[in-house]
Amino acid sequence: MVVGKMKLTFQKRVKLAQGLWMLSWFATLGGAVTFALGCFLKTELRRRGEVMDNTDIHCVPNTLMIVGLASMGINYFASRICQDALDPGRFPRWKTFLKPFYGCSVFFTTLMLISVILSYIMKGSLETSLKIGLKNGIRFYKDTDTPGRCFQKQTIDRLQMEFQCCGNSNYRDWFEVQWISNRYLDFSSKEVKDRIKSNVDGRYLIDSVPFSCCNPSSPRPCIQYRITNNTAHYNYEHQTDELNLFIHGCREALVNYYMGLMNAIGAVVLSVFLLQCSVLASVRLLQTSMEAVAGQENVEVDSEGYLLEKGVKETFMEYVDPVLKLLWLNEVTPAEAKAEAGTS
Amino acid sequence: MVLLKMKFPFQKRVRLAQGLWLLSWVAMFSGAITFTMGAFLKTELHRRSEVMHSMDIHIVPNLLMAVGLASVGINIFAGKVCQDSLDPSRFPRWKTFLPPFFCFSVFLTSLLLVAMILSFALQPSLEESLKIGLKNGIRFYKDTDTPGRCFQKETIDRLQIEFQCCGNTDYRDWFEVQWISNRYLDFTSKEVKDRVRSNVDGRYLLDGVPFSCCNPASPRPCIQYSLRDNSVHYNYEYQTEELNLYSRGCRQALVSYYMGLMNTIGPCVLFDFLLQMAILVSLRYLQTAMEGVIGQEDVEIETDGYILEKGVKETLLETKEKVKKLLQFAQVGDASATTTDAQPEEEKPATA
Predict the structure, then answer these.
(1) Which CDD domains match (chain B) (predicted)?
(2) pTM recorded for the entire structure
(3) Which end is more exposed in chain A, N or C (fewer Cβ atoms within 10 Å of the end residue's Cβ)?
(4) Mean local confidence (pLDDT), A194-208
(5) How close does chain A come to B127, measured CA to CA in Å?
(6) Do A186 and B233 meet the contact criterion of CB atoms below 8 Å apart?
């Protein structure tokens, strides 16, 4: 049962070859764009690598980069094939090459689709990674004298100012950690002693946030200390007033940012995927229609082109069988060796 | 005395025309780049126009944009002229256009140099404009409820955060203005009453700065209030310690930024100027060399090319005479109208 059978006149074959040559150059450009987008995404993920706990999400840009490079190679070969397609003398030399070429191309093109799907699947993993990373960043905010952690303060401050966010889920995350270092606390003062005694771990906890949580758009000079204490500030009720801090948590802000990036990239990669599929389908049609003409004296006859000679399942088994045989061969040899050892 | 005479055999003329055609395309591209850089500089100046008092500095990007556009036109024209120059039948139609074209182009190209000189000469004016603009911005920081000034706070805050600066000259500028609005001051409290009474104008002045002056790179949580009071903060001496605020003033930061921009644009503009002058000189040589060929039977003879037929002084006097004659014709047109009225009166006494 032939899949996608089409009659192709000589003129149509010529047009197909020419159109395919142009299309393959566009698809090469598309592959380069995919590679560039993968690099860009990886750079952006690395920039905020300090507030991420693991690098699982990096599989998305890595896949994009590999697929981009592979697609450039595939389309280059596609253009060479269709250059030689209209010349019956040069076309046969590609014969042995075509089967592995199709196998590789289909594999990498599916990988392109998988990378787009991955970017949505990995959202949960990204969120967890950011949750842990930000929690650590906020915990080590005060350790500006500890080697290895001395830049956490600057990182978190700049992150909050740039993404206009405060804390992990919201500003109250700062109430649960001691973010002022002991170096700057007067342990002889009553207030400090009271606060430290008020919790089990002996931490100096306050209902205040760092300055980087302050929102410049607020009409009032920033209230960052004693946020929950209405009497400490004039004309202030923290339950009803709109606080002049950033309301979003940094986890939410970063996840939105990266999802926005990956949505935009996903749209571009999907169109490159469609372009790639059409290139591969056209190469297949051209190849099969040229094979029908090969060996004939009159090259200008009509011929039939098709996508798959047998059905989809049978063709898939044809491709996968050699790979499986290779694997089974390896399994068979140890058994044979055992049998030999058994007999000897 | 001819200025800078050069001999041009036929081959040299052909090479000159071809080279000039190519060069005119490069110069057109360079003119487009000059226009783009002028547009970029104007956008950057416009973005911070809220803290600038006057628009004097805008003359630099305006000149760059005007000259960039004009130079695209000039180079298209030059390309067309040198395309026609090797064809003696098509060349004469450009004859009348070329002298005014040269004057116009030299004028416009010298405007590029003027723009570059202006970008350095106007630096004091920019600094003064920023000084006044920032002073006003800091003064109206608290007026977030006054229409027309309600965005000053956000503008100044974002400016200080982005350019990593504090105040006009430095952070002490904030001590001299009331930057906290009366809406947020408790006038029944002793502290507020003391501060308001302590100065003539009844303003609430304090030794504190807004949060946007805080430096994230400092290891200590930001100290922005009671900066002059060592006893309020633990382990703090404002005279000796490096404050965790931004140390430079916003005026200096902005001036450095814009001077840096203009210093980067300067070499590109200079390159464009030199390229344009080279094209005009080559076009003049080509024109004068071709004029020697016009009317001759054999087009492949050697001709002379020069920049000016007579010396510089004599050419200037000649142009002066020409312009005078043009003005006189305009005057004579009026004068002849008045003399025809006067003449019958003169003739009358003669006849009488």
Answers:
(1) peripherin_like_LEL
(2) 0.82
(3) C
(4) 91
(5) 26
(6) no
